[in-house]
Amino acid sequence: MGLSPGTYAVNPSLTANVCYFLSGGVYAWQAGYTNSGGGALVSNELKPPDEPTVANNQVASAHQFWNSGGVNCAGSFMLAAKGVGGVDAIRTGTWAIEITSVRTDTYNGMTYTRESAPSMCRTVSISVGQAIQIQMSNLPGATSFNVYAAPPTNGCAGPFGLAGSFAVNGPVRNNDLTGCPFGSGANNGHGNGNGNNGDNCSLGGEDAIFDATLLGLLFIPNLLAQPGVVGAYPPDPETGPLNSSLPNQNPPRRAGSAGDRANENNCESTAGVYVTCSGPITPGAVEFYIPAGGCLSNSNSADTYVFSGYQYNWVAVFEPPANTCSNTLGAASNSAYIGLVYVPAATAGVSSPYTFESAGTGGLIAGKVTFTGTMPSVTYNANYAPVPPASRLTS
């Protein structure tokens, strides 16, 4: 289900109602990029499982990003008390848990860590001789998960501290999403459709036990701990959606490691250290390059939601002047091009009110722009626009 940057000689022609995660980099669609038909969701956004409502971190949002358009790819997690006995048992009482999705992307030979905003909070009651079992139904993009815990008596109000992490070990596929999250076979908590009890969720799942090795008597959240260090506070939470029918937006830009650590509002140094925006690196950013002979065609039954970044001068889509095709920028429910769509000699036909469902974009420059149907709302934001000014861009 993951796509990697590089040169694609053949148009992918996505037609199924499934999800595709884009690793960071430049995608050269030599024969064009088509997303139509069944309603695929294509994105490089790294999201947590069980995104919470902004008003209450104990309630999952009704609109999970990776469920947009009905693709059914949003992850989820469950907690249970697990008997371990002896020195492995943790403190008794009610523990609260939040989880973040983690992955790395590479640019210019350097690897950059991305960590999503936190999930909703779930609690589990621990008795004598027990530890916490976490069952995870995977979601696009995550290669591991960080677990943040609030010890007994704190509850979902926190504070939370980093307790540890666990990796995504099995394949994450999009060929059978009917039972996601978790699947339905044998009540094992999750399924991967590839031999794990035959459950109908090919995204797969993971199991982890957090015992006294990770949650011992000395475990305590630590406000002063740096990201990735045991006890560190989780990233900032997501912000409210643009409207009640859409998923949450990412955390805003803030100083250093505060704010977004995963997507368009995240900035890191060339050494892979979180820095205050602007730039120079937006880990995970993508750019679509479509030369003459190709065209971007996104129908009104599918979604493409991508962000570019500083290393690509915030160009999300680029077609050189030799390309004079007629592009279709449609959307089913939740598309966005966070950056500049620059097709100076081509036509950009915007056919859906849902084509630019983000808090900001770098603009749309085309030889000709047409609109059909209900007009979209397009919010320009200079933070996602090229520097120097777009008027100076050439091939």
Give the uncertain stretches in residue-range form: 191-196
Please indicate the percent range of residues in DSSP E strands (runs of 2 or more). Answer: 25-35%
Oligomer: single chain
* Biggest beta-sheet profile: 9 strands, parallel
Taken in chain order, the helices and strands follow as EEEEEEEEEEEEEEEEEEEEEE
Characterise this structure:
- Helix content is 0%, strand content 32%.
- By secondary structure, the chain is mainly beta.
- Strands 2, 4, 5, 15, 16, 18, 19, 21 and 22 form a 9-stranded parallel β-sheet that branches. Strands 1-3-6-17-20 form a 5-stranded parallel β-sheet, with no helix packed on it. Strands 8, 9, 10, 12 and 13 form a 5-stranded antiparallel β-sheet that branches.
Briefly, what is this?
The protein has 395 residues and is mainly beta. It has strands at 2-3, 6-8, 19-22, 25-29, 33-35, 41-43, 76-83, 93-107, 110-115, 122-126, 130-137, 144-150, 161-167, 205-210, 286-289, 296-298, 303-307, 315-318, 326-329, 336-338, 340-350, 363-371.
List key phrases describing it.
mainly beta, nine-stranded parallel sheet, five-stranded parallel sheet
